[in-house]
Amino acid sequence: MQLSGLQRRLDAALRRHAGTLLALCLCVAPAIAGVLPEDRTDLLYHRYQGGGVTVQGPSLLIQKKLTDNLALTANYYEDMISSASIDVKLAASPYKETRKQKSVGLEYLHGKSTYSAGLINSVEPDYRANTSYYSISQDMFGDLTTFTMTYKRGWDKVLKDGKVNGRIENVPFPDEPGVPNPGGLSQDADHRGYTIGLSQILTRSLIMMVNYEVLTDQGYLQSPYREILYLDPTQGSGFSKADQIYPNTRTSNAASMEAKYYLPYRAALTGQYRYYQDTWGIRAHTLEFGYTQPAWKRLILDGSVRYYTQNAANFYSDIFPRANFQNFEARDRELAAFNSYSAGIGASWEFPKPPVPWINRSTFTMRLDHLFINYKDFRNALLVDPAAGIKPGQEPLYKLNANIFQAFLSVWF
Amino acid sequence: MIIRNGNLTRSSRQDAPGDRPRARLPRLGILALLLATLGGAITGCSPIEPWVKPYEREHFADPIMAFNRDPVSSVYREHVFESREGARGATGGVGGGCGCN
Per-domain residue ranges for chain A? Predict the structure, then answer.
């Protein structure tokens, strides 16, 4: 196989899943039901840079009421990826690719109920994903309470690229453990999600929201490119590589609580906590605080800090003692144990109302977040050098620093 | 029976020989009946009265109190985190969150 030089898109492996379905946040009913989204258009430029990876691109979001009780939401999102991450350097060569995602959703308001449904489509050279979702929100108890239920279903096609006659194209999957359809040009992965949520006005200045979400996945859930490492004294480096083997099912539970408090001098405090666990043995805690402060007449300033921690999946290891050490084997960084810290600031400027009758309001916003991930059991295997006394398993732990920048124009009409 | 963490569990005392678990059941039943009566008396079998009146909710109309003030931005930010972390779901607006893998 001539795949080693093309084992790229490593960082995109998880990004594509998240990207496809995070669009649900755009489309699924908001916390406060009984009101359709405002007529609004946002044009965003985003840029992520860190760990040898740059991801940038545009996103266009349109929300428009078609009638008094029917609203349309449409989004186009693009990731232009240029990657020379640690994973790529270890097993492949730098690459560039583009992922395009389109979504459309409808919200129908009937009395105190809001019904939502939509479709999301994501395409990249070696991955196709389609998702549908359905949601019902109901206002209760004098509109102090909103209860929401959501169901979503996803169908993915996982492909694998290789170099054939000097050209990169989809190639058949090999006959390996963990590959359900050897020889096929694609593997399937199905996803289901069930969410219940409740938002509650508690006092004149305090509102809170709780969510519980169960997600189940079945099929080919691993990246076809990433590899594990195992000790191999016959190699000069002291280790060899082999394909990952993931379980074909995964079920996760996540519960979160978010509260927002209005301060007496017109500012807002936000606190959020999430607990997560899944059948792969990952348990994670997320804690985030935010502060919003309007300044002067047209400026709104935001600041936030976020802490995240998780333990490793049961079948994760930075380096395995030998080949075929266990049934399931993984070395994805996302399944390692680590702590993640981030801090962000943002500023939003509201333009004076233009002399155009169809524009009610317009703002320009910039936001910058810094992300730092401190891995506990994922080492920088590029630094293994037995000749210098650095054997596999003794190299320094990997750390990731990244900057996340956004700039967007919003127009309400 | 005792209630612990929302689940009915068997207490160690109940398992003890010579104990009379049935003796507690009527007391629980009476307590439930009292609570139901009290609840009925408070609500008067009428819709729950909102304790924050509509005219007292002006703070929630302020954009700074929106859970998701700029959807296009918050979705992107969550996307960045979810693609680098093992956890997923139950974030953002009700019903939002990442669904796959």
Answer: 4-412
Q: Which residues contact A385 (CB under 8 A, 6 or more apart)?
A: none
What number does CATH give the domain A4-412?
Answer: 2.40.160.40
Chain B nearest C-alpha distance from A175 (Å): 23
Please tell me if residue B29 touches chain A, with a CB cutoff of 8 Å: no
- Rounded to the nearest angstrom, the minimum Cα separation between B42 and chain A is 15
- Return the closest-CA partner of residue A326 out of A335, A315, A336, A337: A315
B89 contact residues in A (CB cutoff 8 A): 193, 195, 213-215, 252, 254, 276
The DSSP-derived string for A247-295 is -SEEEEEEEEEEEEEEETTTEEEEEEEEEEEETTS-EEEEEEEEEEEEE
Q: How many angstroms separate the Cα of A287 from the Cα of each of A258, A305, A341?
A: 10, 8, 10
Q: Which B-chain residues 38-97 have CB contacts (< 8 A) with chain A?
A: 47-52, 54, 56-57, 59-60, 62-65, 67-68, 70-97
Spell out a b/e string for A124-139, using b for 16 or more CB atoms within 10 Å of the CB, else e: bbbbbbebebebbbbb
Concatenating the DSSP letter of every residue in chain B gives -EEETTEEE--HHHHSTT--GGGHHHHHHHHHHHHHHHHHHHHTTSPPPPSS-GGG-GGGGSGGG-TTS-HHHHHHHHHHHHTTSS--SS-SSTT-S----
pLDDT tens per residue, chain A (413 residues)? 333 443 444 444 444 444 444 444 444 434 455 788 899 999 999 999 999 999 999 999 999 999 999 999 999 999 999 988 888 888 777 888 899 999 999 999 999 999 999 999 999 988 999 999 999 999 988 889 999 999 999 999 999 888 788 788 888 888 887 788 888 888 999 999 999 999 999 999 999 999 999 999 999 998 888 899 999 999 999 999 999 999 999 999 999 999 999 999 999 999 999 999 999 999 999 999 999 999 988 999 999 999 999 999 999 999 999 999 999 999 999 999 999 999 999 999 999 988 888 899 999 999 999 999 999 999 999 999 988 999 999 999 999 999 999 999 999 99
Does A114 contact B at CB distance below 8 Å?
Answer: no
Question: Which residues are CB-neighbours of A25 under 8 A, at least 6 positions away?
Answer: B68, B71, B74, B75, B78, B91, B92, B93, B96, B97
Q: What is the ipTM of this complex?
A: 0.88
Of the partner residues A25, A268, A308, the one whose CB lies closest to the CB of residue B75: A25
As a whole number of angstroms, the distance between CA A351 and CA A347 comes to: 13
State the Cα–Cα distance between residues B93 and B66, nearest whole angstrom. 10
Can you tell me the distance from the alpha carbon of A117 to that of A245, in angstroms, rounded to the nearest whole number?
A: 35
- A273 interfacial to chain B (CB closer than 8 Å): no
